[in-house]
């Protein structure tokens, strides 16, 4: 029997991320209603991105978010753990800038995600023609080589939605198991957690990030585990978590991570 009170939804967003809806209190209330033990707001941290659309919060918004988190922690003390976290885009040529930005905020953990390969937003529906332009296998190579760089950078605590390149259902015909093994090995060697992200279940690809095969590889290489709904609305908090825990156990995970002040504690998963 899965005890939801052991679980934290480590990957959620807010209305400040421009592509999410709902007040922060609504997300917390949703987590309480689901019976979760914790919720983490993984804010798209202030940074420039290659596209015109704005997904990252501003510094002024970040100040509001930090103040709101403290208010919620006071109001709901003893009812639920509330974490202030960041989701940071990884760019190989900006590691120093990313590190400096992370130092600005009192974060409990940082999710490192690859949304961009060079200036191509791989998970944006408006840019899928790139798969036809360069080929699916080449897209996978470029994407996963960037993910490996993120894992090795030392900047992050959690690797976010590790195979989001599959979001629109693109699968290479060629064998890419070597890439999968390399990214799992790099993640385990770096002592990172993998974000078992349930949002993929409702995307065109129709499965969690990462896939069962990739998740098994992460487990074999000793990566830690967190769960994330990638909620962009309060009703999405904790979605499919029972199924995600069952999958994680089947793939070889026995513990789940909790973070505070970027210190990790592993708890029994069941």
By CATH reckoning, the class would read Alpha Beta
Count of the separate structural domains? 1
Please estimate the helix content: 25-40%
How many β strands by DSSP?
Answer: 11
Spans of 5+ residues with little confidence (pLDDT < 50)? none
Q: What's the CATH topology label?
A: TIM Barrel
The separation of the N and C termini measures: 7 Å
How is the largest sheet built, in terms of strand order? 1-2-3-4-7-8-9
- What structural class do the secondary elements suggest? alpha/beta
* Average pLDDT figure: 96
CA-atom Rg in angstroms: 17 Å
**Secondary structure tally, helices:** 8
The CATH H-level homologous superfamily = Metal-dependent hydrolases
Silhouette: globular
Q: Outline the biggest β-sheet.
A: 7 strands, parallel
What oligomeric arrangement do these chains adopt? single chain
Q: Which range does the strand content fall in?
A: 15-25%
- Encode the helix/strand succession as letters: EHEHEHEEEHHEHEHEHEE
Your description of this structure?
The chain has 270 residues and is an alpha/beta fold. It has a single domain (4-268), classed as Metal-dependent hydrolases (TIM Barrel, Alpha-Beta Barrel). The chain contains eight helices and eleven strands. It has helices at 24-34, 59-75, 95-102, 129-134, 136-152, 177-189, 212-220, 241-250, and strands spanning 8-12, 38-44, 81-89, 109-113, 116-117, 120-121, 158-159, 193-197, 224-228, 255-260, 263-268. It has a seven-stranded parallel beta sheet with strand order 1-2-3-4-7-8-9. The protein has a two-stranded antiparallel sheet with strand order 5-6. It has a two-stranded antiparallel ribbon with strand order 10-11. It is globular, with a radius of gyration of 17 Å. The relative contact order is 0.17. The mean pLDDT is 96.
């Amino acid at each position: 029997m899965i005890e939801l009170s052991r679980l934290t939804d480590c990957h959620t967003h807010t209305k400040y991320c421009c592509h999410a809806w709902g007040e922060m209190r609504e997300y917390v209330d949703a987590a309480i209603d689901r019976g979760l033990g914790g919720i983490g707001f993984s804010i798209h941290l202030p940074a420039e991105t290659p596209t015109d659309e704005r997904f990252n919060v501003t510094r002024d918004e970040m100040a509001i978010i930090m103040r709101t988190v403290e208010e919620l922690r006071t109001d709901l003390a003893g009812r639920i753990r509330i974490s202030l976290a960041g989701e940071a885009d990884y760019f190989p040529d900006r590691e120093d800038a990313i590190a400096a930005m992370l130092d600005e905020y009192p974060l409990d953990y940082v999710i490192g995600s690859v949304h961009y390969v060079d200036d191509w937003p791989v998970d944006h529906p408006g840019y899928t023609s790139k798969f036809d332009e360069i080929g699916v296998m080449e897209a996978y190579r470029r994407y996963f080589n960037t993910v490996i760089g993120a894992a090795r950078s030392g900047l992050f605590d959690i690797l976010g939605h590790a195979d989001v390149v599959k979001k629109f259902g693109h699968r290479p015909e060629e064998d890419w198991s070597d890439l999968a093994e390399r990214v799992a090995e790099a993640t385990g060697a770096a002592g990172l957690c993998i974000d078992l992200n349930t949002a993929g279940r409702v995307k065109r690809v129709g499965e969690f990030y990462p896939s069962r095969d990739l998740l098994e590889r992460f487990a074999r290489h000793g990566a830690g585990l967190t769960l994330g709904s990638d909620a962009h609305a309060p009703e999405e908090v904790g979605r499919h978590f029972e199924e995600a825990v069952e999958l994680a156990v089947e793939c070889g995970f026995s513990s789940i991570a909790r973070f505070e002040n970027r210190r990790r504690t592993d708890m029994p998963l069941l």
